[in-house]
Amino acid sequence: MRIKNMSRLRFSRALFKGYSYLGLVGAVCAFCISFLPSLLPRPWLFQGIVTGVSLAFGYGVGTFVSWVSRWLLEWEPPKSVKHVAWWALAIVGPIAGLMYLFLSASWQAQVSRLVGEQPQDHRYIFRILIVSLLVGVVLLYGARLVRYLTRLLINLIDKLFPRKISIMLGMLIVTYVLITIFNGLFFKSFVRFANNGYSQRNNSTASGIVQPLASERSGSPASLIDWTTLGYQGRNFVARGPSTVQMADFSKQKAKEPIRIYAGLQSAVTPAARAALAVRELERTNAFDRKVLIIANATGTGWLEPQAMDSVEYMNNGDTAIVSMQYSYLPSWLSFLVNKQDAKDAGRELFNAAILPENARPKLITYGLSLGSYSAQSAFSGANDLKYTTDGALFVGTPSDTELWKTITTNRDAPSPQIDPEYNAGTSIRFIDSASDFDEPTASWKKPRTLYLQHPSDPVIWFDFDLILNKPEWLREKRGADVSPSMQWYPFITFTQVGLDQFLGVTAPSGHGHNYGDKIVASWAEVLTPDGWTEQKTEALQSIINTYAIE
Questions:
Q1: CA quadruple 306, 311, 316, 317: dihedral sign
Q2: 8 Å CB contact between 529 and 391
Q3: Cβ atoms < 10 Å from Cβ of 467
Q4: Alpha helix ranges (H) inside 411-514
Q5: Counting runs of H as helices and runs of E as strands, what totals does the chain give?
Q6: CA-wise closest residue to 38 among 375, 438, 479, 538
Q7: Is the peptide bond prior to 415 cis by the omega test (within 30 degrees of 0)?
Q8: Are 120 and 108 spatial neighbours (Cβ–Cβ below 8 Å)?
Q9: What is the pTM of this model?
Q10: How far, in Å, CA of 208 to CA of 71, rounded?
Q11: CA triplet 515, 520, 521: central angle to 5 degrees?
């Protein structure tokens, strides 16, 4: 009997030799946790990478806890306890991992159906398993290399100091080196690489885009702004848009050539100079004589959503002027991370330069999508400032760090929920989170109207550092229509989930995530309230906009 037990012990040691028990416990827990549902469905490759990183991270945390506890307590459990614990882990670990792997298929199918996506085939779970194990193993052995080098360093320091001091010094030195390498080699190199890549793209021109000849466009021969300075997205904006023929065909009336003004990063040195140049362009084109003037705040790359810009021109038969300026050429998430102040400066400078006395201007509307919404709202000190200085506003997919949005949401009327707040009885500012909200009575909605368009499943809106330690209201209240009832809040975990969801936001089907194309026409109709506009016209125009490809 003793020989049999000894053989089992030797087998368990051989099976798990070189691995930390608590490290493996942490790996199993992190592996399972990585499958918990969040706001948006995850493609199998994305899920596999996330799970692999989680697995390695969990192993690292467990190993660190084991090392600290051994160092502080200087105690080892009996061999018999270790033997039972290892075999329990050998049985429970794989069962728990496989159970969560199969559960994830059901969770992801539920999330997919809620946002209108076809659920992935259950066979993809095996791809997820393979990718996660490959990623986890690569990271684990990379960490082991670091551990080996750390031990070499500690042994060198051992010759000068007592063992515990040498361990602490060795750990501190390695940690410092790793942080320096991460910041200097990886993060800064990544930013530099991204900067170079997007800079080159900003200097290029999309296929099929040519310099406009109409004097109503920036970059034209008559413009004060040179075509070459507009940037990639600026050239797209001024060269595209509905023609007078297309608008006349829609409205059955003669249409005007819409005015599109854009100042690129290279058009002037500072935000104030670009804003001043854009206003001179407005004056040159007689934009202040148009029916509607839209101050459109771009996203990080300088992009303006064609669905939103074209809709407002169709709706007003071309009697419009749209003005915007660039503050970055990086994607919004990276621009927000590197220097979100540029977005705020651009929003304030453009609005302050373009605003005229109410009796000397057209209907003045401010607009922004995503980081553009953050930029737009930076021009206002509060809800009353917005109300008395504009003739309306449309803010789409607003990031949670936006002060005006945060203030309005925090001070909403009770008992309205965070995902669909009511502010001051909806007399000036309203929120729309689903298509059914457009059916609500608007008689009490006075002009000027401000509309916030936001989806319950949009991670850009709900990502907040407060998620790390506090359960958000949008998960304590009744869930939004496209948010899984299986999604729960966990410290640190939900913060990471929603952060990762942002990479999937724009790929969600229209009407979910960070994709608002299906509601843009109805939203403009609510804000602008054009004369003679009907629901039939909204549907007809939306059918045109729905043919646009997502860029």
A1: positive
A2: no
A3: 23
A4: 459-462, 473-476, 493-501
A5: 21, 7
A6: 479
A7: yes
A8: yes
A9: 0.88
A10: 66
A11: 150
pLDDT tens digits for 90-136? 899 999 999 999 999 999 999 999 999 999 888 888 999 999 999 99
278: nearest Cα among 300, 263, 296, 293: 263
Alpha-carbon distance 181 to 140, whole Å?
Answer: 18
Per the CB < 8 A criterion, the answer to whether 131 and 101 are in contact is no
What span, in angstroms and rounded, lies between the C-alpha atoms of 189 and 483?
A: 37
First to last CA, the chain: 70
Q: Which residues pair with 393 in a beta bridge?
A: 366, 450
Q: Nearest-5° angle of CA 450, CA 455, CA 460?
A: 95
Distance CA 281, CA 148 (A): 63
Cβ-based neighbours of 340, under 8 Å, separated by 6 or more: 371, 374, 401
User: Which of 252, 254, 238 has the alpha carbon at shortest distance from 206?
Assistant: 238
Candidates 258, 267, 257, 259; CA nearest to 233 is 267
Q: How many residues does the chain have?
A: 551
Q: Is 269 exposed, middle or buried (0-12, 13-18, 19+ CB in 10 A)?
A: exposed
Question: Shortest CA distance to 132 belongs to which of 98, 157, 89, 85?
Answer: 98
Cβ burial of 529 (10 Å; 0-12, 13-18, 19+) is middle
Cis peptide before 221 (omega within 30 of 0): no
Inter-residue contact 224 to 284 (CB < 8 Å): yes
Strand, coil or helix: what is 206? coil
Q: Give the ranges where 285-429 is alpha helix by DSSP (H).
A: 306-315, 332-339, 341-354, 371-377, 383-389, 403-410
Q: Beta strand 392-396 with 429-432: parallel, antiparallel or unpaired?
A: unpaired
Q: What is the pLDDT of residues 348-405, one digit of tens each?
A: 999 998 877 666 779 999 999 999 999 999 999 999 999 999 999 999 999 999 999 9
Report the distance separating Cα 82 and Cα 22, nearest Å: 11
